[in-house]
Backbone:
């Protein structure tokens, strides 16, 4: 996702024109390093400022150590713990980027409003997020297992492309582009899938809408594993679907 997002930024040519960049939700630094490598290849890093942020101090530290080990810290880089929904900057930036972050925001409308204000005149936003059919196999598994009176959808629901387009338009973004791509990921066993969901910070995909965390008994859990293994497995292993939205917009 990080690599494809960078390709989108390159195709627009806008990344060549920026003097300041804000990354929201750097995580372990996949996108961070790709952006740095590109700016260096274009001799842009000497004149460009890059502010790297994450809501998690632990993730920010991991990213900073990774970038330091690669020898990039001699450039104009800053690391700051920051909630992407409550951006506080000393001055507007030309480019804001985020990879697989916005789907966890509590209020995307409000967040995009703040992001728009944080951009300089005609500044650009590039981000990826997950679309509505992400984890569709998991949702269908929950629907088709357990006592019919207690069936429910897991709590995490993802946005549709038209909904996202409408929100970006309402928050004064122009030249909006949303590219939808489907990706199937494989795992040896269902338990490996659940571990991966937890690892990427998406554990709420398995949480019911009421927010309870102690809702699965051993019997129900085994039923879910068995159903998923039977219905969503082929010669490559157990799979899940990601609907990835690659998004771009400019401040009006």
Residues:
């Amino acid at each position: 996702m990080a690599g494809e997002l960078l390709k989108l930024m390159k195709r627009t040519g806008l990344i060549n024109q920026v003097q300041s960049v804000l990354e929201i939700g750097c995580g372990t630094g996949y996108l961070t390093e790709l952006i740095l490598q590109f700016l260096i290849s274009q001799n842009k890093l000497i004149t460009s400022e890059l502010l790297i942020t994450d809501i998690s101090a632990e993730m920010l530290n991991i990213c900073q150590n990774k970038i330091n080990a690669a020898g990039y810290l001699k450039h104009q880089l800053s690391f700051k713990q920051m909630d992407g929904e409550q951006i506080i900057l000393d001055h507007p930036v030309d480019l804001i980027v985020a990879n697989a972050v916005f789907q966890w925001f509590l209020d995307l409308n409000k967040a995009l409003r703040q992001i728009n204000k944080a951009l300089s005149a005609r500044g650009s936003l590039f981000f990826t997020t997950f679309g509505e059919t992400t984890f569709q196999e998991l949702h269908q598994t929950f629907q088709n297992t357990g006592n019919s009176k207690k069936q429910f959808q897991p709590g995490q629901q993802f946005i549709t492309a038209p909904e996202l387009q409408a929100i970006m338009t309402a928050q004064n973004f122009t030249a909006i582009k949303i590219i939808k791509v489907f990706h199937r990921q494989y795992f040896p066993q269902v338990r490996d899938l659940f571990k991966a969901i937890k690892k990427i910070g998406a554990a709420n995909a398995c949480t019911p809408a009421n927010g309870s965390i102690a809702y699965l008994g051993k019997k129900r859990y085994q039923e879910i594993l068995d159903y998923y293994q039977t219905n969503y497995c082929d010669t490559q292993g157990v799979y899940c679907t990601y609907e990835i939205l690659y998004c771009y917009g400019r401040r009006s």
DSSP finds eight helices and eight strands in the chain. The first strand starts at residue 20 and ends at 24. The beta strands are 20-24, 49-54, 77-81, 93-99, 119-130, 173-187, 233-234, 237-251.
